[in-house]
Protein 1
Amino acid sequence: MSGRGSIIKALEGDPGAPLWARGALAVLAPAGWLYGDIMRLRRTLYETGLGVAAAPSTPVISVGNLTLGGTGKTPAVAWVISRLIEAGITPAAISRGYSGAEGGVCVVSDGAGAVLSSPPASDEAVMLARMFPRSPVVTGRDRPAAARRAAELGAGAIVADDGFQHLALPRCFDLVVLRGDRPFGNGRVFPAGAMREPLGALRRADAILLTGLGGLAVHERLRSLSPDTKIFEGMLTPSALLDLGGGPAGEPADLGGAAVVAVSGIGNPGGFARSLAALGARVLESLVFSDHAAYGGEELERIAAAIEKTGADFAVTTEKDAVKLGALAGDERFRVLRAEMKVNGGDELARLIFEAAGLGPEAGEGQG
């Protein structure tokens, strides 16, 4: 296991992490305490109204998380957008735009025309723009400015991707997404752990979505931390097989028995490999790149070499990675696995969101 992989395992609280990695993070515990205190002070200042932008006229729904790494946050964003569309509302997505263009507000898609590529736009923003071509997608470090631009583009509701810690942007609903198996990583605040802020921040959440199997102990811990917050469970479910251009390329079941190379640069690459195995694919090699990785010549050569060396039927990647693999468009050896969030009690969660957004209870009715 690489040094980076060992540290990630330790951050996530994986008991299989090497002792040296867990020890290294333990040494950083005082820095984590200091960072947690800074985040508490920051939250207190925002609660007094300092630095908070004027509330936009368009309702803002935040989907965020409490930890670093993959929790299923972006599929949860897509789930909220889908529910808004089903209700006849034009949603827009806004995000900071990691790995995308620096500087001001960037319109990745105006909902009526071409979509920027990644790069310069961020991978998650481009993925959402391709999934929902009639919905504006805007990025920018200044999230209130991005929200104003989204409203100008005709949004009836705005979904803020990764907005939980962005306190300058007023919102009507905070949905926090946590991994069901390890919701708090190793339980420490960055840099000693995976948590972005102390556990008390959960009291700001209007609802919690656990992705994967949570278990009774996790539910009890969450209720003790935030007794009045509704808890839901969701599962990422493979829903389509695409080519690198986003066109249909079969069904997920077609991977059953196929020999594949897994290619991923996401927060939870192990989850992607397990999804492939659950479909019956034989994962001959798993190529793991850093989250938000840019795929340049070296990375493309590594992928091609793995396909040749293993004799795999396909290289399979995630939808988030696919938007950055345009150089390989037309390569018939590639498949893209789309996964959608299925929420237990989805109608109830949608009702809470729509009521908080002032969109009417009837708008939340539909499929979970």
Protein 2
Amino acid sequence: MKLLFSSILILLSLNLYAQKHKNLNPVAYYILVDSTNTKTSNDSLSLELDIKKDFWNHTVYNPYKEVTVTFPLKIAFTDSTYFSPIGKDKVVTSRYGWRRGRAHNGIDIDLITGDSIFSMFDGIVRMARYTRGHGRTVVVRHYNGLETVYAHLSKYGVKENDTVSRGSYLGKGGVSGNARGSHLHLVVNYKGIPINPEYLFEFNEENKIRSSELWVTKKWTQAIAHNSKRQSKIKPLLTEEEAIASLVKERSVYIVKSGDTLSRISKLNNITIASLCKVNAIKRNSVIRIGQKLVIEK
């Protein structure tokens, strides 16, 4: 009888707690506070408090505007794979890079309006609201400092402050905001700085993370250094030494051939026209001659 009475009191207390904390299921909370899982409870709560400690703002897409990030920076993962943000083959229709004279700071993945969208990793929803350009947007902050952004949704499946797991349903894909056709605009940010998602992840059926530790240089955070129409040549930097060494740019000489244009030369050498013009002190409308030597800097 005493045991039954104690159990009733516990359940009543848990229900009262759950009403105050709407995102928490009372049964799940019981599992967390069970004496055999005290460490799990403490670890989970401390992790949640840690990622919500600073710059936790629901109304601002980038709350880190006043933060200075030092490069190269290290991104670490506890998993070797991510959960696919869509439930079918991922077809990238537009890549991270310079597009129509503007920075395209994510990748576009083809879908049909109404397709379900899923969280790539465990985390907490920092933002779930309409933003200019992105339309209906969900931003999930993860425990390694990254934030993943899921834009152009047609329907929300989560609320701000919801704790989500890898593979959790976030909403439905669509065409909200400034979207040309239905697709998922996926952005990966670190303290407000967009990183080329394809530098971190392989977007194929294997869903691989390129390495458990990756060093990111400014090159992988600057859209102007990439072309949205093709995937950049990716060589992951696995140590700080590699990252620092990569900052020393390699130069070569290209001799202009018949039929060459600045556009063709930039594609052949996997560099931007802007970079080609800057290094050679020429303009986009400059006339190039057969036999002319151009410096290529990578």
